[in-house]
Specification:
alpha/beta; 6-stranded mixed β-sheet; about 25% helix; about 30% strand; globular
Length: about 200
Amino acid sequence: MQNFVYLVGDQNTREALVVDPAWDVDTILGHATKEGFKVKGALITHTHFDHVNGLEELLKKTDGIVYIHKNEAEFLKGMKGNIRKIEGGDQIKIGQVEIKFLHTPGHTPGSQCFLVGKNLISGDTLFINACGRCDLPGGDAEEMYRSLSKLASLDETTMLYPGHNYADEPTSTIANEKRFNPYLQTTSLDDFLKYRMGY
């Protein structure tokens, strides 16, 4: 269950957001400081414990803004003043770097991915040669199929940065996933459900 925690920032303004702060906030902030970035908040792909267990500590140390999909916000308690509810298609900037929010339900109702130029941070929606579980509370295999279809339509040169280290390499491309990921090769919802859920 090795998590990837990413920094998305502007090389000129030196401002950054942390994607899914978890486990070791001091190390995350220390890395940001070492690279000369000031953390201004967090981008949350979804609220499973292994992705947000460091969020409260991060906010105590930065008092930043938390960008989370509106369908997921209810699961964060005691952070009301810091939360910005997002919908799919919304865009923000950190410095001059533009971040587009893609609502990708299936793993959870409010799962979202972040598109930064031709870089996709996919949380637990799309992994290298795999996809997120749909059998946990709030999971929905039909929604996952539609979300994966949306991601498969992105430019094939888009780099993929998944939420967990489940593969031999830490990154991939949409082209490689369309070629090798069995969950992107199903040609219908019925086929996906049979493969993913054993229906």
